[in-house]
Amino acid sequence: MPEPVAKDRGTGHRATAAISSNAAVNRAAQRIRQVLAASPVPEDPGHAENTLLWLLRMHPAAGDALRLAALAHDIERARPDRLQRHQFGDYDTFKQAHADEGADIADGILAAAGVAAGVRAAVRNLIRRHETGGDPDSDLLRDADSLSYFDHNLPLYHAREGYAETLRRARWGYARLSQRARHFYRQIQHEDGRLNQLLAEACDGRLDATGA
Ligand SMILES: [Fe+2]
């Protein structure tokens, strides 16, 4: 039985923890965390740590590429000129552009830190696929990212966007969860009862949400 999931939202001491026995990988992780700490999106530094936490909860033996990708997958959003939904015709096109640009940004950081070429290529692939999945490791990252939205991001997103938009986003997120992740979804609880109601509504027979 896994530990309760509502307590550690990945915003505390883990932000400086080593993620690998490899020094270059740890240098890259430190730089990624520095960039995210300056993000204009307030939930993003904690979301990165919380995504790593979910990854390791589902797959404790995850290697360096998955760990780096968990931290860096949303690094595109840390820019002042980050991509905006209104610049794209639909939500999925917007999300793919976010993933592709994030893969490039992360690769620059990994190269500067001296990370091995094979790990860099794997991280690039993982970040490009973090919204869609498509192979076992990308599916794992997508699940960790999705669970972290519900666990870590939901309160801030709800405070900023309101109930209706958060429910739309939550339905879109639930629809892409694997069966493995849906098991963990049912364990997520928030102190605010409205958010627990929203989580219940988001998975209530609306698996055809498109995110549009
Ligand atoms: Fe994310």
UniProtKB/TrEMBL annotation:
Organism domain of life: Bacteria
Pfam families documented for this protein: DUF4202 (PF13875)
Protein name (database record): DUF4202 family protein
